[in-house]
User: Which sequence fits this backbone?
């Protein structure tokens, strides 16, 4: 039986940073994640993707951010149970929960912090007949290593941040990049939209709006994508890779059965401390919802910071919380 102060479900960036904030208050943490390594989506889906909204970093690769977070929390010696999904939670005392994983591992803690990102997720696939036979043979829903596309002809589909960011990034790596989107307007950040438009004007990216992929051709390996456009009808694009980036389809999985208040696959929380309404259980990051919610990593960092303050008071109701600035450092860690 593993025992800790805060059990964090989800070892993504928000879960990892929560370990640091908890460590400042001398609270021990143990993290559980269904993925085989820390980092969540940053490690599993796009470790080489640049991130632009982390304070102090004009640009940082997702995998590098994970490495930095792991280095930051190392002094606090968190525990990890990886490759196991959180299955059931039961109350075993006045202020104690016992979580059992998909492999039977049991962990007890007075506080549970759900930082599961989007929960269990899978890529949203375009409704193209026969697309499955080209998966990993020219059709990729996730970009893990952009160097794979060096010198290739790429067709990217989508209108959100992922499609825009990867179009910008891969324009310097691939031989040819075409971006198609079924609308004329994009859902991504305005700065990214402007960069893609500038790349299109400079002929560094082929941009086709009011268009969508409707067919794939090849002999075991993808060779062509049939695109239906408003301006030119059906056109056939010769490609090495077709990359539809339509986001992820989230599912809460077993967490949905834990008696929490759920709204559209997200957990409702109180923004004073990101508590769920069930004493001792909190939710931070993309998995929670509240009025004005922004699904940004830096917002998850803020939520984790306030959560551990509340968790300390919940665990130690009679102990005065003395929190110093993190500029006050000890030799092997931080004083609190």
Assistant:
């Amino acid at each position: 039986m593993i025992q800790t102060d805060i059990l964090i479900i989800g070892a993504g960036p928000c879960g990892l940073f929560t370990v640091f904030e908890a460590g400042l208050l001398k609270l021990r943490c143990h993290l559980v994640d269904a993925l085989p390594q820390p980092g969540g989506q940053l490690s599993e889906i796009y470790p080489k993707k640049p991130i632009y909204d982390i304070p102090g970093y004009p640009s940082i690769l997702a995998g590098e951010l994970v490495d930095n977070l792991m280095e930051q929390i190392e002094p606090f010696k968190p525990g990890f149970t990886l490759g196991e999904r959180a299955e059931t939670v039961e109350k075993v005392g006045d202020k104690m929960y016992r979580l059992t994983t998909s492999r039977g591992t049991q962990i007890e803690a007075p506080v549970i912090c759900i930082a599961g990102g989007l929960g269990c997720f899978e890529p949203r696939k375009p409704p193209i007949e026969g697309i499955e036979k080209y998966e990993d043979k020219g059709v990729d829903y996730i970009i893990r290593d952009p160097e794979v596309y060096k010198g290739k002809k790429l067709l990217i589909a989508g209108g959100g941040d992922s499609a825009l960011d990867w179009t910008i990034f891969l324009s310097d790596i691939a031989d040819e990049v075409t971006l198609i989107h079924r609308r004329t307007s994009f859902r991504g950040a305005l700065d990214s939209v402007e960069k893609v438009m500038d790349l299109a004007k400079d002929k560094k990216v082929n941009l086709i709006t009011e268009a969508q992929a409707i067919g794939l051709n090849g002999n075991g390996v993808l060779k062509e994508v049939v695109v239906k456009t408003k301006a030119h009808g059906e056109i056939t694009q010769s490609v090495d890779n077709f990359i539809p980036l339509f986001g992820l389809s989230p599912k809460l999985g077993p967490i949905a059965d834990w008696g929490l208040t759920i709204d559209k696959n997200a957990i409702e929380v109180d923004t004073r401390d990101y508590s769920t309404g069930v004493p001792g259980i909190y939710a931070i990051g993309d998995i929670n919802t509240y009025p004005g919610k922004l699904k940004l990593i830096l917002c998850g960092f803020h939520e984790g910071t306030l959560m551990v303050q509340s968790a300390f008071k919940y665990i130690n109701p009679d102990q005065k919380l003395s929190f110093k600035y993190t500029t006050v450092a000890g030799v092997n860690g931080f004083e609190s």
